[in-house]
Amino acid sequence: QLQASGGGLVQAGDSLRLSCAASGRTFSSYAMGWFRQSPGKEREFVTAISWSGDRTYYADSVKGRFTISRDNAKNTVYLQMNSLKPEDTAVYYCAARISGGSSFIAGGYDYWGQGTLVTVSS
Questions:
Q1: pLDDT digits (tens, 9 = 90+) for 82-117
Q2: CA dist list (Å): 2 to 81, 94, 106, 119, 121
Q3: CA distance 52 to 29
């Protein structure tokens, strides 16, 4: 029901935009988040956005470089990633939270996409 796309191989300093398209449900009332997981590491919070889009939250590691946005008419959430670094390399997952309030914890989300791989070379 959540389909993430847009990953790929880029060089350090490049940009990518990830998309997360929701189907089967109306996710416009759900808070949405992006998490990432690198090999050997736990899944970590990247960013989240409230159901209305008026509140956003970012991990310190991506603040100022990444921007989350959403288009509820299209049931889609976006993650614009600029100034990418090798340490941003990970599988990126989008997630939806029924309550509508944002969470920084993976366990706080109810639906997950399949993940899209982002690889940043130095």
A1: 999 999 999 999 999 988 678 899 999 999 999 999
A2: 19, 7, 15, 21, 27
A3: 7
